[in-house]
Amino acid sequence: MLANRPLESRPPSDRQIGHACGVFGVYSPGQPVAQLAYLGLFALQHRGQESAGIAVSDGETITVVKDMGLVTQVFDERRLAPLYGHLAIGHNRYSTTGSSSWQNAQPVYRSVGDAGFALGHNGNLTNTAELAEGLGMLPGMTAAETEVDSTTDSALVGELVAREWPMEPRSDGRDLELALEKVLPRLRGGFSFVLMDDSRLIGVRDPHGFWPLVLGRLDGGGWVLASESAALDIVGAHYVRDVQPGEMVVIDASGLRREHRFAEPDPKLCLFEFVYFARPDTVLYGQSVHAARQRMGVELARQAPVTADMVMPVPESGIPAAQGFARESGIPYGDGLVKNRYVGRTFIQPSQQARGLGVRLKLNPLPENIRGKRLVVVDDSIVRGTTTRQVVAMLREAGASEVHFRVSSPPYRWPCFYGMDTGRWGELLAADLSVGEIREYLGVDSLAYLDLDRLTAATQASPESFCTACLSNEYPVPVTLTDTDAKLVLEEPVLDLGAPTIASP
Ligand code: SF4
Predict the structure, then answer these.
(1) What is the DSSP string of 236-291?
(2) 455 touches ligand 1 (CB under 6 Å)
(3) pTM for this one?
């Protein structure tokens, strides 16, 4: 069936997949915790580039510094020096709910009487409307009217925790823990939290564990929480274990004091962590992400072989899968595109007329490697397809005789509601096109996507332990149309593949 919107009417966009955030926490008396948090956030920069923030406690006062921009733009020695304490959390943000603004940068800080707490959130809740209603916040109210100083689901969690704070301060100081025990079972969707009060570090993962959160140990005896194990390596911590889905861990002066299960675990790690999000040097489910991506390329070569002269990646995301494809197929591996390593999200976006130029600024072909060759071009995913189409046109201009595109994941057809930013449903290239139509749109000689069962096999983890909703339309947590985000994401729905499995309110 043909698309119900002409391709040329697609909103022009060269946006790639975005992520929800990176979180980091450290409890280590006597160590420069703010500097460690800075290094941890730097290692997790790929998970969010819009804002960065660190909260530090010296046992009495929590100080929060946050701003828009990359970690290295927000923090320098002058800004880190006064952040003295024994306990810190940090956050890199990529907005999925709420606008990209200073108010929505994290950590979120809340004062409650004489106490206070800070929170960093990776993920997206799916029952924000219901939670907000329970707090007396009506749809359309501004942040000022609700007296919550931000429009994110993370700020909403801060408000819920503040309202559940014990009336009388606890002599054992467990106020934040007790408030969380009441709030966490009410949250739905994706959440990996790092939280702190003036003397405790807390890590929380939702019952499905959509987003990773690991626990590490510093040689000096301190503890670290991080979105990815690679961040542990960078601060000199060693991996202890994953925070389990449905678990809250509490770290204080006595060490890892409490491991509390607030819900039955039903692990559904985001499969795209393996495909694209996580750093290649991260370990997930005990498997090296880099090695898994190479195995995806091997599987792709077995599933969709082709006669060609050179296998090349779309750098950098397609590199390991292209290596695996080349190894399995016996076709030589080579470079056909050079990536400008310094183009990040801070780059001034080109005007609409100059969008084609925008891709060239990031990726430039190597004509001497390409001319006259039959190419196998490997990338990890195609979300909106605009960049891919331009890349193919560049390769043809540079003299490629054939372009065979291979993708190391299945067509990305349904929106994510748990914390990955793909924009609106109507922007997803595969939402309403068959593989043949996408091949035509991209202008390639052949196109193949890796089958879902081969992809999960390449991870060497149980297929049941993944969320695959954007690829399979099987949503582990139902989404209701009362949720504002769901409405936004579902604008411009397409009908020929079946609507996402959205529950009625
Ligand atoms: S819907 Fe897709 S991107 Fe979102 S958590 Fe599931 S697998 Fe990951």
Answers:
(1) TEEEEEEPPTTEEEEEETTEEEEEEE-S-----EEHHIIIIIS-TT-EETTEEHHH
(2) no
(3) 0.90
